[in-house]
Design goal:
three-stranded antiparallel sheet; Phosphorylase Kinase, domain 1; 10 strands; 216 residues; five-stranded antiparallel sheet; alpha+beta; 6 helices; Transferase(Phosphotransferase), domain 1; serine/threonine-protein kinase; transferase; 37% helix
Amino acid sequence: MYQLTWIDKGLIHYVKIVSKNPNDPVEVTNVPNEWQLIGRGNYAAVFIHPSIPDKVVKVYAENRKGLAEEVQAYQILGKHPSYSELFEFGERYLVLKKLNGITLYEALRKGMFIPKSVIKDVDQAIKYAKSKGLNPADIHGKNVMMKGGRGYILDISDFLMSYDCPRWRDFKRAFYVFYYPIFSRSSFSIPVWLLERVRKGYQVYIKARGLRQKQG
């Protein structure tokens, strides 16, 4: 409980997080000293502090809901090597195990090769979540991390939703059809403007198919 009080007074009281568009990352301002912003999703931001190096604090935007559902999803999921782990939670935030590595989006941007083992790990993690009665959704390049050839799923906030999410299926199809045949021979970086154009184009594609979208 001391840790939660410390987070409330040291971070939540000061930081401002607003989601202006559900398809774009949140805007973050007024981050307190010693806290470091390490990630922005479309509904929340993630912070680290040197006093808790093995944990992250995920804070939801003031105008977005979903924390209760994410807490429940973690409680159902339990422990698995390809997922984070929930330690504690407050009114607007979760304290999670820190996962180290680089997202697949960043790997593409930096020209770091993505091995097949990462894709296979994510497939196994999805299978595990389904065995727990969850519906793994919203899994894509920004929500998957890799390190040492291993794959990790960063965000499970949509795992209680009932919709059929095609994102991971489409990502895998692109990986095996386009990415792997080309990048296994010679890796090169993909500029941010091109990655963002693909991301936005995919959002339009999803919307045209009448499918639910939350993250991007």
